[in-house]
Design brief:
50% of the residues lie in helices and 20% in strands. By secondary structure, the protein is of the alpha/beta class.
């Protein structure tokens, strides 16, 4: 139930003064609605241009403007307002036309049944309030996304400047510094680079969510791209005594955005290195025109409850931190794969490990 519907304002239009007086008296006795009535369509429209209402009730047969014409004008002024058309029995066909063409909520026959009229008005008010709530939530979401996009864009410049300055100190460009200073500045550099990574990830997520990202697809061999990602984590794997099982064919030609696909591959491999016990398996398989890429670890696995949250924004699971860093990695990976028309997923068992995968179809053509 929408709160405070009894505070709603109802507008009633009928050229018959007795009808409007009866309507207002009924609602004043049975509800707490604020009721305004008009006997002229022009006067009602002038009022609507300057005032808010939650629901409009209109007669169909009127001399200056019929109900369908009036409600059509109403929609131009107040697109979200719920409307009810009052008709005589002979006007049913026109009432159905109004539902199809104008989008009225209900039509009620005259003379109306008091209980039926009040019930439909209350339901109509709830509908109006719900529509407004949804519109407000969408507007808040749009403003939030615009704020994030603007903020993250503006943050990149000072972060890049700070990173460049720290690098100048560390490489000796700005003079000699002590080992203690180097250690301190290296920590600062790492923190700034992490922050820049978060900012860049937020910008990428926003572009995908806003539908503003254009994939730059090309034909390329997918296997060398994966091997490059593996080479980048070789030192970490050796330091942690992690065995990497390479289960890939010599070559797989695909048609995709190489840069974006590299993000997903690096995310899968990076997460596996963090969470495995001692082995990860990287695999590419192909069946007909479907390619499947997967990274499997033998770590602790993920509960079903946590697994459902992993591909959502800022989610890293509840009991185990799964994504390496921001909580955006897997969410962005999902956006990228779905933008390619593919499927992303996870197979996992507690105490046995997890396998993250994506599938892409139509691998040779756009």
């Amino acid at each position: 139930m929408i709160e405070d519907i009894d505070t709603a304002r109802i507008l009633m239009l009928d050229d018959d003064e007795l009808a409007t007086k009866t309507f207002k008296l009924l609602l004043s006795m049975r509800t707490s609605f604020d009721v305004v009535t008009f006997n002229s369509a022009e006067a009602a429209l002038d009022f609507l241009k300057e005032n808010e209402v939650d629901l409009v009730v209109s007669d169909f047969v009127m001399p200056d403007m019929n109900g369908i014409e009036f409600l059509t004008e109403l929609k131009k002024i107040k697109p979200s307002v719920t409307s009810i058309l009052l008709t005589g029995y002979a006007d049913k066909e026109n009432a159905i036309k109004a539902i199809n063409e104008v989008g009225i909520y209900k039509y009620l026959e005259k003379p109306w049944n008091d209980d039926d009229l009040i019930m439909n008005i209350k339901n109509g008010v709830e509908r109006s309030r719900l529509v407004e709530t949804i519109k407000m939530q969408k507007e808040i979401e749009r403003l939030r996304n615009d704020f994030i996009a603007t903020l993250t864009h503006d943050l990149r410049t000072p972060l890049l400047a700070a990173i460049q300055t720290l690098e100048f100190f560390l490489d000796g460009t700005l003079g000699e510094i002590s080992d203690k200073q180097k250690k301190f500045l290296s920590t600062m550099l790492g923190s700034n680079e992490d922050m820049l990574g978060l900012v860049n990830a937020l910008l990428e997520v926003y572009k995908y969510e806003a539908g503003n990202y254009v994939l730059n697809k090309e034909h390329f061999d997918f296997v060398p791209l994966v091997n490059q990602s593996l080479q980048e984590i070789t030192a970490i794997a050796q330091k942690k005594n992690i065995n990497i099982v390479n289960n890939m064919p010599p070559s797989v030609i695909i048609y995709a955005d190489k840069r974006e696909l590299r993000r997903v591959v690096a995310n899968f491999i990076g997460n596996a290195i963090v969470h495995t016990k001692d082995t990860i398996e990287v695999k590419i398989s192909k069946e007909n025109d479907i390619i499947k890429f997967s990274v499997k670890d033998n770590g602790e696995g993920i509960s079903d409850e946590d697994a459902k949250k992993l591909f959502k924004r800022f989610s890293q699971g509840t009991s185990k931190k799964r994504s390496t860093g921001t909580g955006l990695g897997l969410y962005l990976s999902r956006q990228i794969i779905e933008a390619h028309g593919g499927e992303i997923g996870l197979d996992t068992k507690l105490n046995e490990g997890s396998e993250f995968y994506f599938k892409l179809g139509d691998i040779k053509n756009d």
